[in-house]
Amino acid sequence: MAPGWAVALVSEVCADAGVAEPSLRWRRAARVASSGVTRWGVGSVAVTSGSDPVDERLTLLHELAHWVAPQARRRRGRIAHHDAAFYAVAFRLYERHGIPAPEALAREGGRYPSSLRHARTLGVPGADTAWHERRVALRERARLRRPVRVLVPEHTVRLVRDGRWTRCGVCGVRIVGPVLVRLRKRSGRHLLLGTG
Length: 196
Ligand SMILES: [Zn+2]
Ligand SMILES: [Zn+2]
Hints:
The chain is an alpha+beta fold. It has two domains: about 5-145, no CATH class; about 150-195, no CATH class. Helices cover about 45% and strands about 20% of the residues. It contains seven helices and seven strands; from the N terminus they run αβββαααααβββαβ. β2 and β3 (about 45-50) form a beta hairpin. α3 (about 85-95) packs across α5. The chain starts with a helix and ends with a strand. One zinc ion binds next to α2.
């Protein structure tokens, strides 16, 4: 059974948009976050609500944005994704129906990072900062994840003296300890890896 505020919100949003109301299905789950799904085919919006009231409200508004947004980009009977037209509707609903911009950006951006780009285009307050912060975080993550690559391909080690050290004359790597002992006895091959 949907709570009264949710039923009222569905009516208000659909009246504003001039569209028929979906049937609202509501169930509770023992978790913090909410989730939802909109099915045009059967004319329903279903929400599984968690304990966070802002998330619950935002989730219903997100589904209502699917319900009232232009439906041209439907694919294979399912809702086409979260594009510019969708977010123009969604962020307007969040603003009009009591989701503060920072909350909308944090929650929507957490689920659908591409929403930040649309929010920025739409001029949602704080979206520009959130979008830049995400770009910095992505760049940093890419840097940390950069794969190891071969700096010098596999070659036969050629031992050369360099002061008190021994190096490979091909790649320049210093060779010490048991590896050096082994290579002195018997020639070997290696390659030089790096993240450069
Ligand atoms: Zn969605
Ligand atoms: Zn080498």
